[in-house]
């Protein structure tokens, strides 16, 4: 452990476009919040940075202190923005970047499935603000996450003279999902306020602008959120066009698997559940199952296996495979529930499930954190047939709640779910990306489910597996220290 206070304390700025509990659309928000808490508990001073979205302007910003103004020069415009700080725990501050013209909107990245047309300027401003916060706080490490903040690492390399206080700072870019890169048209370049000469080679991607690529080229160090995903994205066809860039950075690129914040995701103390339970006493899980069957309008049958999906309805999550097996699943006597939102097509497909399979299937289209906890707790099985999954947190939450994950062997799913067999393992895996392979895995799970004792052993093994942040947090600390040595 490094010194908890004083001049030896490692100061880290961690930037992300979403951070739990302030704004969340997926696992990025949970992963960043939990890593930050874990680093702070282990002696770092963590300065989180995120945009002040509408929800934050209405609530959290009222408890924050104004720190400084910043100006963002973009095409024909100088936009005022301000930095506000709030303490969220010992050695943990959060800095909100307030620019109402950009962030006081109904969505984080867009509305009704359509991205905001000025996302280039919104996240260019954010990336610059990250460097301001790093300077103000005297951070030695600037840890940026995903495309929204990746340009901060590039800008620091390209314009070091603008940030003299950061000459000793080092940057780490964590990729949570390579499928999202921040592509923009070339003619938006002037809006970034960067020298025209900076376009090549870092930002340029097939003639356009690529925010993520700028960080991949110029951050001092790169990570993804699981070792398997790190390997996968360097294979031809798996890196969304950035395989070559990643291969070129192989010596500075590694994978650290995400953990779980067991203060937030734990059936022993989860405030959302009708009854709490533990590996030692599973009785409360039956009450959670009954409650969730009732909530989704299912027959309250304790013997029917309940299979759940809690997911963004987006490409890559394998929802086409779920569609393929749905009839067979319901026909087999299982029940199916889904909580999700995202693509219009998928929302429209899943919304009418209750009338298609009355009493056997339910769907809630929307984003509801409490319901996510209750759905995961109440189900027997969690389906996560992702085509690609950088890490995945939902399967880790399911394990802790004794809900057996059925996952495709890819990315972080391969690294975290252990195949059931004999008296080992805690989930069911399949390889081929097809409805038939998923259905075969579901059938293996259904066979185990028939044997109550074997199933309960499986549940207990998952519930007792340790996926806490502590080991991964130490791996990040090692990288931070190596960057500074
Ligand atoms: P990703 O980040 O790709 O969406 P993860 O499995 O890492 O996948 O994280 C997803 C997170 O978002 C989990 O915390 C999950 O519970 C949550 N989540 C996904 N969809 C919903 C939803 N519709 N309502 C509430 N929470 C959701
Ligand atoms: C991304 C990935 C997911 C990962 C999460 C947190 O959203 O899609 O697999 O768990 O980030 O790192």
Tally of strands:
20
Distance between the termini: 17 Å
- Biggest beta sheet attributes: 9 strands, mixed
Supply the CATH superfamily name of the largest domain: Glycogen Phosphorylase B
Query: What's the domain count?
Result: 2
Q: State the helical fraction.
A: 25-40%
Cα-based radius of gyration, to the nearest Å? 23 Å
Strand content: 15-25%
CATH architecture grouping of the largest domain? 3-Layer(aba) Sandwich
Coarse shape: globular
Small molecules in complex: adenosine-5'-diphosphate, alpha-D-glucopyranose
CATH topology of the largest domain: Rossmann fold
Class from helix and strand fractions: alpha/beta
What is the average per-residue confidence, as pLDDT, rounded to a whole number?
A: 95
GO molecular function: alpha-1,4-glucan glucosyltransferase (ADP-glucose donor) activity; alpha-1,4-glucan glucosyltransferase (UDP-glucose donor) activity
Function: Synthesizes alpha-1,4-glucan chains using ADP-glucose.
Pfam family, one: Glycos_transf_1
Family: Belongs to the glycosyltransferase 1 family. Bacterial/plant glycogen synthase subfamily.
Describe the structure.
The chain is of the alpha/beta class and 485 residues long. It has 2 domains: 11-259 and 470-484, Glycogen Phosphorylase B (Rossmann fold); 283-466, Glycogen Phosphorylase B (Rossmann fold, 3-Layer(aba) Sandwich), CATH 3.40.50. It has 19 helices and 20 strands. It has helices at 27-41, 54-58, 100-103, 119-137, 146-158, 199-203, 211-218, 227-232, 243-248, 283-295, 319-331, 344-350, 353-356, 369-378, 394-400, 411-416, 435-450, 452-464, 470-484, and strands at 11-15, 45-51, 65-74, 77-89, 92-98, 110-111, 114-115, 141-145, 170-175, 183-184, 204-205, 208-210, 221-224, 253-255, 306-313, 335-342, 361-365, 381-384, 404-408, 428-430. α10 (283-295) crosses α14 (369-378). The longest helix has 19 residues, at 119-137. The protein is globular, with a radius of gyration of 23 Å. Residues 1-5 have low confidence and may be disordered. The structure holds adenosine-5'-diphosphate and alpha-D-glucopyranose. Residues 26-28, 31, 176-177, 225, 258, 389-393, 412 line the site of alpha-D-glucopyranose. It holds the Pfam family Glycos_transf_1. Its EC number is 2.4.1.21. Residues 11-247 form the Starch synthase catalytic domain. It catalyses: [(1->4)-alpha-D-glucosyl](n) + ADP-alpha-D-glucose = [(1->4)-alpha-D-glucosyl](n+1) + ADP + H(+).
């Amino acid at each position: 452990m490094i010194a908890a206070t004083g001049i030896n304390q490692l100061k880290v700025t961690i930037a992300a476009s979403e951070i739990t509990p302030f704004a969340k659309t997926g696992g990025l928000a949970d992963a960043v919040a939990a890593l930050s808490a874990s680093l702070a508990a282990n002696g770092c001073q963590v300065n989180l940075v995120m945009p002040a979205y509408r929800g934050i302007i209405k609530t959290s910003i009222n408890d924050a202190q104004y720190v400084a103004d910043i100006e963002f020069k973009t095409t024909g415009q100088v936009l005022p923005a301000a930095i506000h700080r709030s303490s969220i725990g010992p050695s943990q501050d959060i800095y909100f970047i307030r620019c109402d013209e950009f962030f006081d909107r109904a969505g984080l990245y867009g509305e009704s499935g359509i991205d905001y047309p000025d996302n280039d300027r919104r996240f260019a401003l954010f990336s610059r603000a990250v460097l301001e916060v790093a300077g103000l706080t005297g951070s030695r490490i600037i840890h940026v996450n995903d495309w929204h903040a990746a340009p901060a690492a590039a800008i620091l390399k390209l314009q070091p003279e603008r940030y003299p206080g950061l000459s000793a700072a080092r940057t780490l870019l964590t990729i949570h999902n390579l499928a999202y890169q921040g592509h923009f048209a070339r003619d938006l370049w002037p809006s970034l306020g960067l020298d025209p000469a900076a376009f090549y080679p870092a930002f340029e991607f097939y003639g356009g602008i690529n925010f993520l690529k700028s960080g991949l080229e110029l951050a001092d160090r790169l990570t993804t959120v699981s070792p398997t995903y790190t390997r996968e994205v360097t294979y031809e066809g798996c890196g969304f066009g950035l395989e070559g860039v990643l291969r070129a950075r192989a010596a500075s690129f590694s994978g650290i698997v995400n953990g779980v914040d067991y203060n937030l995701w734990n059936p022993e103390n989860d405030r959302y559940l009708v009854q709490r339970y533990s590996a030692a006493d599973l009785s409360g899980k039956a009450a959670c199952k009954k409650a969730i069957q009732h909530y989704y309008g299912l027959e309250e049958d304790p013997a029917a296996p309940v299979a759940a999906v809690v997911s963004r309805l987006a490409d890559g999550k394998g929802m086409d495979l779920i569609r393929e097996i749905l009839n067979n699943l319901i026909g087999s006597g299982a029940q199916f529930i889904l909580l999700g939102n995202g693509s219009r097509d998928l929302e429209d497909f899943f919304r009418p499930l209750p009338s298609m399979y009355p009493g056997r299937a339910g769907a809630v289209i929307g984003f509801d954190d409490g319901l996510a906890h209750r759905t995961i707790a109440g189900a027997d099985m969690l389906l996560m047939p992702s085509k690609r999954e950088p890490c995945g947190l939902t399967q880790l939450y399911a394990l802790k709640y004794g809900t057996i994950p059925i996952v495709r062997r890819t990315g972080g799913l391969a690294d975290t779910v252990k195949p059931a067999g004999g008296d080992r393992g805690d989930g069911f895996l399949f390889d081929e990306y097809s409805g038939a392979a998923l259905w075969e895995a579901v059938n293996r799970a259904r066979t185990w489910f028939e044997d109550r004792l074997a199933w309960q052993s499986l549940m207990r093994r998952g519930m007792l597996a340790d996926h806490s942040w502590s080991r991964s947090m130490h791996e990040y600390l090692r990288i931070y220290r190596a960057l500074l040595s």
